[in-house]
Amino acid sequence: MFAQLVEYLQYPFVRYAIIVGVLIALCSSLLGVTLVLKRFSFIGDGLSHVAFGALAIASVLNLSNNMLLVLPITVISAVLLLRNGQNTRIKGDAAIAMISVGALAFGYLIMNVFSTSSNLSGDVCSTLFGSTSILTLTSGQVWGCAILSVCVIAFFVLFYNKIFAVTFDENFAMATGVKAERYNLMIAVVIAVIIVLAMNLVGALLISALVVFPALSAMRIYSSFLKVTICSAVLSVICALVGILISILAGTPVGSTIVAVDVLMFGICYLCGMVRGR
Amino acid sequence: MAYLTIRDLSLGYENQAILTNLDFTVDKGDYLCVVGENGSGKSTLMKTLLGLTPPIKGQIQWGDGLKINEIGYLPQQTIVQKDFPASVWEVVISGCQGRMGLSPFYKKEEKLTAERNLERMGITHLRNSSYRNLSGGQQQRVLLARALCATTKVLLLDEPVSGLDPKVTAEMYALIKQLNDEGITIIMISHDIEAAVRYATHILHIGGKVFFGTKEEYKKSDLGKFFLAQEGGGF
User: Which phi and psi (to 5°) does residue B158 adopt?
Assistant: First the structure.
C-alpha cells in the first residue's frame, strides 16, 4: 500500500490536490471556532447553497471564469447574514435557513430550465457533493488557492485578539470602543472566500463539516481559546490529509471521505473529553 | 464639570419611548445606583449610556476629559459565555482591546494592567483556569477584572449580583464599594433597593415616577419611603 501511495504521489495532480485540500481545511477550521461559538454553525451550509445558486447562474450564462460571479454573490450574502449579529429582525438561524434553501431551489431550477449540459444530474451531484475537479487542478489554481490561504491565515493571526474579544462579548467590546461591526464584517467576508474555495473540495452540502467538526472536536479536549484554535487547525489538517489519501487509495469520493474522517475524529475527541472529565 | 451629564433624555427602541425627560448628573467619585422595577428601562438606559442604543432625544455628555473608550462595563452574562472555551487570562486581558486601536498583539503594558487587575480581584491563582468551569461569583470577578482593564475612571455595572448567593453577593458589594473608595466612579443597575441605599451615594429611581438625588434625599422622599418599606429595610 505504501509503495502504491509513493507511486501516486509522483503525479503532480495528486500533490496539488493534497496541498489545496490541506490549505482549505486549515483556513476553514481557523474561523470555525469563532462561528461555532457565535452560534453560526450553519453559516457554512447557508453560504455554500448561495454559492451553488450563483454557480448555476454562472454556468447558464456560460461565464468563462465563474468565480467572478460566485465570489461576489457569496460575499454579499455573508455580509447580510452576519452583519447585525444579535439584533436582527429575522433571527440568525431563520435567516440562514431561508437563504440556504431558497438559493438551493433557485439554483437547481435555473440549471434545469436553462441548462445545455447533457449530464444535468451529474453536474448537480458534483457541485453538491464535491467534484473530482480537485484532482484536475492546474498549477495556476493551486497558486491562487495558496495565496488566498496565506491571506486568510495572516488576517486571522493579526486580528486574533480582536476576534476573541468580539466573539466572547460583542457588547462589551463595542461599549469599550472596539469597532466590533467592522470585525464582524471582515469575518463574514473571509468566511465567504473560504467557502467558495472549499466548494471544489467537498462540495456545497458538506462544507459545514469542515467548518464545524474540527472546532467541536477541539472544544471537547481543551478549554482555552488559543489551545482550541490551534488544536482545531491541527485536527483539521490531519483529517483532510488522511481523508484525501484514503480516497486516492480506495477510490472513494474525496469530500465525503474527508468528512467521514472528521466525524470519526470527533468521536475520538468526545471520548477523550469524557475520560478527562468534562 | 461633571463626568456625565444627562439632559432631557428619552430612550427606547425604534421610537417607542420607554423613558422620557430624564435629567441627572454623575460627578467624579460618585456611586450612583439605578433602581426600578423590571421593564422600567434600566438596561436600556445602560445601553444608551454606552452608546450601544442611540437615544431618541436629548443629550448624553461625557465630560472632564473622559473618552468613550475609558469606560468599564460589567454586562450581564450571555448564553454564549456559558460554554465558551477561554482561560481567565484571555478574558481579562481582552478588556484592554478598546484602547489598542489596530495594534494586533498585547504588549507589556497591557499584560501588566491585566496582572494588576487579577490581583486586585484576588483571582491571580485562577489565571489559567477555564472561565466556564468557575463559580458564578468567580466569573463575576473575572468580568470585573476585565472591566477594570478598560478603565481607571468609570465603571458601569448591569445587575452585578443577579444569580449569586447571599454570601457572594455581600462580597461583591464590598468589592465594588472598595473600588469606589479607590476613586472609581460607579454607575450600577440593581433591583436590590436596600443594598443600593446602603452603598450608593446617589439614587436614580426610574419607572412610573422618576427620582434623582442623594440617598439621604431618597430616604426622605415619598417614593423612597414607599419602596424601602416594601422591602422591609430598616434604613
Answer: -105, 100
Length of chain B counted residue by residue = 235
Residue A26: what pLDDT? 92
Interface contact B50-A224, CB threshold 8 A: no
Average pLDDT, chain B: 85
Lowest mean pLDDT among A12-21, A88-97, A149-158, A245-254: A88-97
Q: What pLDDT is attached to residue A46?
A: 85
Q: Are the beta carbons of A77 and A99 closer than 8 angstroms?
A: yes
Cell numbers at A82, concatenated: 452576519
Q: How far is CA B105 from CA A140, A159, A184, B98, B108, in A?
A: 34, 8, 19, 13, 10
Q: Which residue of A has its CA nearest to B146?
A: A172
Worst-scoring range by mean pLDDT, A116-120, B17-21, B190-194, B216-220? A116-120
CATH number of B1-66+153-235: 3.40.50.300
The stretch A179-206 carries a mean pLDDT of 83
Domains for chain A: give ranges and CATH numbers: 2-272 (1.10.3470.10)
Distance between CA atoms of residues B21 and A176, nearest Å: 26
**Yes or no, beta carbons of A176 and B87 under 8 Å apart:** no
Which three-class secondary structure state does DSSP give residue A133? Answer: helix
**Which residues of A have a CB under 8 Å from any CB of B?**
37-39, 157-162, 164-165, 168-169, 171-178, 219, 222-228
In chain A, residues with a C-beta closer than 8 Å to the C-beta of B78 are 169, 171
What number of helices (H) and strands (E) belong to chain B? 9, 9
